[in-house]
Each structure stands twice: as C-alpha cells, then as structure tokens.
Amino acid sequence: MRRQLASSGSVLSGRPLLSVLLAAGALIVFAANPSPVSAQQGPGSSASDPSIQKEASTQASDAAPTVPPETGPPSTPPSPSEPTVEKPLASGQENGLVTPDEPDASPDTDDQLVILPEIERQGPRHFLSSFKLPDKLVFAGQPVPLDNWQVRERIEYEFYQFLAEEGESIILAKRTGRCFPPVEKQLAEAGLPDDLKYMLLVESKCVAAAYSRAKASGPWQFIRSTGKRYKLHSDHWRDDRRSLEMSTEAAIKYLRQLKEEMGDWFLAIAAYNAGEIRIKKLLKQQKVSDYWKLHTVRETMRYVPRIIAAKEIYSQPEKYLGLTSKDLYAPLETETVTVNVKEPQRHLAAIAEEFGSYFLELKLLNPELRKEYLPKGTHQIKVPKQGCPFRCFKQDKAP
To answer: pTM higher than 0.85, yes or no?
Structure first.
C-alpha cells in the first residue's frame, strides 16, 4: 500500500501544478451542470442533438446516476468473465425521445413534447357507411321489393360498389350530361320509361365505341345478329351499332318487344342481358314468374340491381358525389352534313379541315366510322356546329 502511494505521489510531483488545477476546475463545473446521456439510443435519435440534450437536463433528480465522459482513450472492454450491466432507459427514451417524467409535471407546461399535433379537417369526411339505400325505390314505374332480404342485399352491393369507385363514378356522372339528353328525347317520343337510360351506364359507361369480349358493340352493346335484326348495318368501314341515335332507336324497339313478351320491366331488362329464350326457359324450370326469385348466371343476377343502383346514385349526383348540373359535361353542339366522295376514298383529316375541325374530333363525333377514310359515295357525318360566316362560305364553295 505504501509502495502504491509513493508511486502515485511521484507522478503528481512530475506534472505542472497548473494542469492539476485546471483538471480539478473542470470536474467542479461538470458536477454543477451535468448532461446525462442514456446508455442506449433509439433508431431515430441523435446524442448530439441540442434539443434532446436540453430536454435531458430536465430529468428527475432520482434518475440513474451519470458519469462524466472520459477525455482519454476509450476504456478497455470488460473481459468475457465479467457480466455487463446495462443502465435502464429513463421514461420516454425508448424511441430516442425524452419527455418530462417528474411526478408533479403539468401536462400544460411548455416543455412537454407533442409528437403528433391534431389536424383540423376542412369540412366533413364522408365514409361509405354514411350513405344509406332508401327504404323505397321505384324503377320504370314498378316498385322494387326491398323488404325482401336478398333483394335489398343485392342492390346494396351494387350501390356501394359504385360509391367505392368514387373517381370512376364522378366521370360516369359527368358523361350523363352529354349522352343522356338525346336518349331522353327518343325514349319520351317512343313512350317508354325514362329510367331505361340508366342501362347505358351498365352496358357501356356511355362510351359509344365500347366493344366487349362477346363482340357486342356500341353504347347499347348489340351483338351483330341482334343489331342486324333492327337494321344496324355493320361492315369493314362502318358500324351503326356505335351511333348513339341509331342504336337507341334499335334498343327502344327491342325493349318494347321484350316488355310485351316478359310482362314486366325487370324481366324485360334481364332478357335484354341474357336473351329472352334463356330467361323463359329458366322461369319454367324454376316455376317462378318473378325476376327477383329467379336464379340465373351471376352477370344477369347483378344486371338489374346494378341498373337500379345506378338510377339512385346518378339521378342525384349532388347528394352522392358532390356534383351539380354545372359540373356535368355539356351536350355537344353538332350538325349533320352531307359529304360526296368522288375519288376512291377521302381521308377524314381532309374532310375535317373543310369543316373547321380536326381528325381526332371527327372520329370522336362519328364513332361509327371504323376507318380513317370515307369510301366513294354519299355520306352523312357530324361536324362541330359553326357560325354562319364560315358555314355559308363553305356551302357556297361546295359543288
């Protein structure tokens, strides 16, 4: 023991007295203002962050004791035989964040750490559950039996399917402003229910050039044989099934016939989807006369409920989609002109230029034109409606 003290004394005597005084002063300053650092740091923490160090200085006096950092080389790691003891983390340090944990700390103090401030939403947030299917529905003048459990569930399924696809439903609603007016006029002139127009949303989404895997074409999705029965001509350069006016006229004739054969509109619409022969056969086999009691293929089981759900939503776009009539696409102002092609064929771009339009617009206005040209002959096509100075000038120049 005496040998050790002597050795220690010889070391002190060899250092300048000034160095000893400076070291003692540093220890006194550190003891007066310690900066404890946790033994471990979380994945998102930083020991050099001044904000965390400032928070750390407010820890309770009974927290784990701290040791001033060594200024010399790192200490020798403990030998394997010596157990390693880790210091427990103070409250709030598990993720590298430090919060006041004094027993008398007030939650209203300024130094309390707010991890996620509350966000005030602008306007109400609508969930699907906030929309309810009404207790009573009528389609084409016929009440829908919503008191039947399976009927209501089938229609609700389609109702929420439309609402779940909010972006697509908004586009569908906007398209009705453009494709419904001519159809409404034709249905009214034929004396058929206006509600039949909602079939367009399920058949083709109001897309005139729609084409299905079953080779059905146009807004009313006629197959070639049925279209031919109602004078919808199709060849390699033109498909009348894609004309909204012509196909609507054919659909009116077909639906009127189905209503007379099937007895009500629900069965008539189902027959429009699956064919009258198949529906009549299933009704006979299952000994029922009501569409809502008929078991058939999944597509036809969903077809009528989907049209009824479409009517509920798209007849009230402001209620369900937040759209007003001003948000819908405006009807296109067009006029029908006669084009005489004397050469073997004339490209639509040249024809469009004659009427102040362009190729893409002419194709969109005339979806029944399958090719990029008109063959030799006389044709009627739609062009954008023009003012008299332009149109009168062009008519004077026409042969």
So the answer is: no
